[in-house]
C-alpha cells in the first residue's frame, strides 16, 4: 500500500514504510562500485566504454543519428532513456516526490538537487578556498574566479565572463544596443545627430522632396523614436521671409 510507504528514496522512485529501511537503501546507492574495465574504444575521440551498447550510443553523437523519435512532437533522441524522460513533458508524469514539501519532479537528479535546498547540503567544495556549493556548475563557475578563466563569451561582441549569469545580463544589454544602432542607422551616429545644426531650407508652395522623404521614414520608425528624429516647423524671422527650419526635439542618449 503506497499510503503506508511515506518515505521515498531521493535517488530513485522506491518508497519505504520505515526510516531504517530507507536509510539502508540509500547506503546501497552511496556504495562505491568497482570500476569496470573499459575495453570499447571510440575511434574518433578515443573515449572508452565498459559496454559495447554504450559505445554504439556514443557514436551517434558523432554521426548525428537519432533513432528514437517522439510520437507526439517528432523530436528525436540518441538514446531511448532520453526519449522516456522527454515523454514526461507531454504526459505530465512526475514520479519523484520531495519528502519535505511534496513537490514532484520528472527526473531523479532534479529531485536530488531540490532536496539540498531543504537539507542545506553543499557537497561540492572548492579546493582553493573554504567555500562549498550545492551544485557542481556553481563550483565550476566559482573556480574560474581563482583561475581567471572566462569561458562564457558574448556572441555579439565576444566579451567574455566567468559565469553564465553575468553573460546573460550582458547579452540583454548588448542586444538592446544593437537594436538602437539599427534604429538610428541612416541618420548618422547618436552623437552626430544630437550635435548637428538644424537644417535650413527655403520654403515654397511646392512640397520639399527632402521633407516628404523624411516624413516617410518617420512613419516606418517605432513610436518612441519619432520624438527624437529631426522634424520641421515654419517660422518667420522678419528678414529672410518664411523658411523651413529643422528642429531637434530630444537627445538620442536618452534611448
From TrEMBL:
Keywords: DNA-binding, Metal-binding, Nucleus, Repeat, Transcription, Transcription regulation, Zinc, Zinc-finger. InterPro entries: Ikaros_C2H2-ZF, Znf_C2H2_sf, Znf_C2H2_type. One of its GO terms (biological process) is regulation of transcription by RNA polymerase II. It comes from Bracon brevicornis. This is C2H2-type domain-containing protein. GO terms for molecular function: DNA-binding transcription factor activity; RNA polymerase II cis-regulatory region sequence-specific DNA binding; zinc ion binding. GO terms for cellular component: nucleus. Residues 7-34, 40-67, 68-95, 96-123, 124-151 form the C2H2-type domain. PROSITE patterns: ZINC_FINGER_C2H2_1, ZINC_FINGER_C2H2_2. The keyword Lyase does not apply. PANTHER family: KLUMPFUSS, ISOFORM B-RELATED, ZINC FINGER PROTEIN. The keyword Glycoprotein does not apply. Belongs to the krueppel C2H2-type zinc-finger protein family.
Amino acid at each position: 500500500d503506497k499510503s503506508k510507504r511515506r518515505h521515498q528514496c531521493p535517488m530513485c522512485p522506491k518508497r519505504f514504510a520505515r526510516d531504517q529501511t530507507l536509510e539502508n537503501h540509500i547506503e546501497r546507492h552511496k556504495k562505491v562500485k568497482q570500476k569496470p574495465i573499459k575495453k570499447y574504444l571510440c575511434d574518433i575521440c578515443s573515449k572508452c566504454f565498459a559496454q559495447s551498447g554504450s559505445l554504439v550510443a556514443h557514436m551517434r553523437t558523432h554521426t548525428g543519428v537519432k533513432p528514437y523519435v517522439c510520437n507526439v512532437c517528432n523530436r528525436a533522441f540518441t538514446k531511448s532513456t532520453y526519449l522516456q524522460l522527454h515523454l514526461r513533458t507531454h504526459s505530465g508524469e512526475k514520479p519523484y516526490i520531495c519528502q519535505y514539501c511534496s513537490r514532484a519532479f520528472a527526473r531523479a537528479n532534479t529531485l536530488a538537487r531540490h532536496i539540498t535546498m531543504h537539507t542545506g547540503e553543499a557537497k561540492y567544495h572548492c579546493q582553493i578556498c573554504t567555500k562549498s556549493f550545492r551544485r557542481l556548475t556553481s563550483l565550476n563557475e566559482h573556480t574560474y574566479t581563482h583561475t581567471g578563466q572566462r569561458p562564457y563569451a558574448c556572441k555579439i561582441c565576444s566579451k567574455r565572463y566567468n559565469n553564465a549569469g553575468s553573460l546573460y545580463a550582458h547579452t540583454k544589454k548588448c542586444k538592446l544596443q544593437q537594436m538602437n544602432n539599427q534604429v538610428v542607422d541612416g541618420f548618422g551616429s547618436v552623437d552626430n545627430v544630437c550635435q548637428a545644426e538644424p537644417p535650413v531650407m527655403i520654403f515654397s508652395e511646392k512640397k520639399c522632396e527632402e521633407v516628404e522623404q523624411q516624413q516617410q521614414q518617420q512613419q516606418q520608425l517605432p513610436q518612441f523614436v519619432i520624438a527624437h528624429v529631426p522634424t520641421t516647423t515654419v517660422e518667420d524671422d522678419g528678414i529672410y521671409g518664411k523658411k523651413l527650419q529643422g528642429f531637434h526635439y530630444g537627445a538620442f542618449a536618452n534611448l
